[in-house]
Write a structure and sequence with these properties.
extended; 5 helices; mainly alpha; single chain
Length: 171
């Protein structure tokens, strides 16, 4: 039988997971900020939309895709983080709109989804830069490529580590 002090300590430790709930609420607010930025980008582009060159149109679309990927990344962190570390999201249990991955992504899967999103965001930023390569110095381009390669390498290493861990757990 556990001692009362030990039980009380374990209750406090277990309840401390709720300190993360405000973090996820603030992340929800950040989704609203991203939505406002998308609307701001569209309203900024509307007056010149017809006159935009192909290059400027592609840059606008890439920027919007970049914002969408960042929003998706935040949404994954909110859903998976809250469900894995705080509590189940009961209102989504029987919803037909519930994403099929929700409730099934563990910490390992979340890491891989996060790094894949970061690599995609980095790739889009790199593509945006290549669309206007004349405005960047060789040094800036080298750093951007290096950082992107580091993200890709990190993703490969994380995937390999998860693969090795899954094989050693099954034996």
């Amino acid at each position: 039988m556990k001692k009362p002090i030990e039980l009380a300590l374990e209750r406090v430790i277990f309840a401390s997971r709720w300190f993360m709930a405000p973090v996820y609420l603030i992340l929800c607010f950040s989704l609203g900020i991203i939505m406002l930025k998308v609307i701001q980008e569209i309203f900024h582009a509307l007056p010149n939309l017809i006159a935009l060159s192909i290059k400027d149109t592609l840059l606008l679309v890439l920027h919007l895709v970049d914002l969408a990927l960042i929003g998706n990344l935040i949404l994954m962190i909110i859903f998976a983080g809250y469900e894995n570390f705080v509590s189940r999201i009961e209102v989504a249990r029987d919803s037909e709109d519930k994403p099929n991955w929700m409730g099934k992504v563990d910490f390992s899967g979340l890491k891989l989804k996060l790094i894949a999103s970061i690599v995609a965001i980095s790739g889009i930023n790199l593509l945006e830069t290549f669309m206007d390569v004349a405005s960047k110095s060789d040094r800036d381009l080298q750093w951007m490529i290096t950082i992107h390669v580091v993200f890709v390498g990190s993703g490969v290493v994380l995937a390999l580590m998860d693969y090795v861990a899954s094989k050693t757990q099954s034996h």
